[in-house]
Task: structure prediction
Amino acid sequence: MHPALSVIFFTTASGAGYGLLFLLASSCAINPASISLYEILTMLALGLLFSSAGLLSSMSHLGRPERAWRAFSQWRSSWLSREGVIASFSYLPALLLGVLMWRNDVWIAMRLCAILLAACAIATVLCTARIYSSLKTIHAWHNVYVLPAYLLFALLSGAIWNIAVRGWFSSVCSVEALIATMLLLLLSVILKLRYWRFIDTTRSASTAETATGLGRFGQVSSFERPHTEQNYLLKEMGFVLARKHAQRLRRLVLLLFAATFIVLGMLLLISTSLLSAVLATLAAITVSIGLLVERWLFFAEAKHLVTLYYDTRQR
Amino acid sequence: MTCLPQAKSGAKKLGLVIDLDICVGCHACAVACKEWNDGGDFGPLPDENKQQREPFGVWFNRVHTYDVENAATKQQMTVHFPRSCLHCETPDCVTVCPTGASYKRAEDGIVLIDEDKCIGCKLCSWACPYGAREYSEVRGVMQKCTLCVDRIYNETLAVEERQPACVLACPTHARHFGDLGDADSAVSQLVAAREGYALMPELGYQPVNRYLPPRPRRDQRNAVAKAQEEKIDLDQLPPLLRWVDKLLSR
Result:
């Protein structure tokens, strides 16, 4: 699949944003007194900034962005529509949470708001993942790894940005939170490795033989294409560059994750607040770049069934 | 609404039957389709770089040519294969649409795009395994085969012309249009007689269009081998024929 930068940026940025909002909302719901008001407002602003930047970037993927409001209508059948509805709705509890924290009085309403925001954040990422994992036409997406990977990566990037923000407010992040984040990172790496093994060793049940129905006569190979030039299908679904560089890019992702892991480990040992803030920000940046490369590969490595009609001899 | 219409038994299922046995791969269907739809109700189908290198544009119909080789007998055949929208009964291209632009008509099963509602998110083209949908960069919307819905019900056309442009254009009559929901229709009987099949049935989209398989080819190599295997007792022949055989066997 053609890796459109707008969509890659959208899924990673909004993932980080909703991850951050989820963590903030859950800590507000559990123990609102544990975080200072300015920390909450900063995290809220950063979370909304990330998710809004992502949503705006996804708009640039559209051919007719001025009609985007129509996408709220088909939530009964379409995951993309559901994503749009929930993502837009999540601004309400997010802004309300900010206001209630500012006024610092209605604790029950504030907690309800926080629970609602946490639910919206998870649901939005879930919808994003389902947009991809529900497509039967793409073997690399239509599998059990895609949904947990989207949720885990959103939580991971949210958690590391959370540590970074806390670092700048010189509230030292707890050892437990750091270790939990490191475990989350390890879990993400394991999941990604299993995913890569899955897409390398399995293939779709459909072949050029079932696509043409000519399998009963023998092996089907393309003799002549319908057109000498590229068309939309080949440009959008027949992207080949990534598979050539897949191994190298996968190593880059692992390298960036390993670097993040080491930086998080260093944070465990450092008590200087300025240095730890700088290091935590560095970790947030490396993990975000790692996720961008990972998401690029997620698109670029995915092969669409329509390519069977053009490239009949597929691995 | 992008939810699929309730399936009713005996409902009309308009579609195409494509005979792979007699298609000669002339691309007349593809060209006639482009020509009609460029000016039809759902057009235009603008091209980019029309007169230059690398022209690029939307076509609803693409004709592939395949080589099919039997591993055991080494017998080969060339098959021309027109590919277009199959107007599936349960297509994902309709349900994934976030705006309601993509829809399946309850009255005849035709899958259409309301181009005034399409936001050009391209998700429907990702959901289609058959490559039926092509995005128009110029218009910013998705486009697809309409089964010439602006021809088949068009009362200003002569009755015999109320058929999709591709069907009318086919010089070998390899394309047939009709109601595949009606078991007694000419197309349904053709499918029954020739064992017409659906493409990628394993995905469960239940395409309406059917393809008729090529009829078995005569095996030329075996015929030659058989001729060589035949033995003649030369002694039984008159001298003149023996001399002719000698001459021809040289």
